[in-house]
Design goal:
The chain is an all-alpha fold. It has helices at 2-58, 61-71, 98-106. The longest helix is centred in the first third of the chain and has 57 residues, at 2-58. It is elongated and about 110 Å long.
C-alpha cells in the first residue's frame, strides 16, 4: 500500500512539474509576442508621425498659393456680378417622352384596360387615415 502511495505521489509530482513548465513556456511565448506587437505599434506610430509631418508640409498656405497661381491662372473669385436671380433663368423645357412619342406616331397611344379588370372602380379602396380612439 505504501509503495502505491509513493508511486502516486511521484506521478503527481512529475505531472505538476510538467504543468508548471508548460505554463512557464506559454508565458515566455506570450511575452515575446507582446514585445513583437509593441514594437510593431511603435513603428506604426512613428509612421503616422512622419505622415502627419508630410501632410503639414504639403498643406502649407504659401505652397498651396504658389501651386494655385501656377496651375489655376484663369480662375477668378466669384463676385456678386456673377450671381443670377431666379427670375433671370430660362424656363425649363417640358420633359420629352420619347417612348410616348413613338407610340403616338404608331397610333398606339390610346389608353387600354388592364387585363382581368372590368373597368369599374366600385371595389377599389381609398386610403384613409386612422384616428386613435381613447
Amino acid at each position: 500500500m505504501i509503495k502505491l502511495l509513493h508511486v502516486a505521489a511521484i506521478g503527481s509530482l512529475i505531472g505538476s512539474a510538467m504543468w508548471a513548465y508548460s505554463i512557464k513556456y506559454e508565458t515566455i511565448l506570450h511575452g515575446e509576442e507582446l514585445a513583437r506587437l509593441e514594437a510593431a505599434i511603435s513603428r506604426e506610430q512613428d509612421m503616422i508621425a512622419v505622415l502627419r509631418a508630410e501632410w503639414a508640409h504639403l498643406n502649407r498656405p504659401d505652397r498651396v498659393q504658389a501651386l494655385a497661381d501656377a496651375y489655376l491662372p484663369d480662375i477668378v473669385p466669384i463676385g456678386p456680378e456673377r450671381l443670377a436671380r431666379f427670375s433671370d433663368l430660362r424656363e425649363r423645357p417640358p420633359a420629352e417622352d420619347a417612348i410616348g412619342a413613338k407610340l403616338q406616331a404608331l397610333g398606339l397611344a390610346a389608353p387600354t384596360a388592364t387585363p382581368g379588370t372590368t373597368g369599374s372602380t366600385s371595389g377599389a379602396r381609398t386610403p384613409t387615415t386612422a384616428t386613435p380612439t381613447r
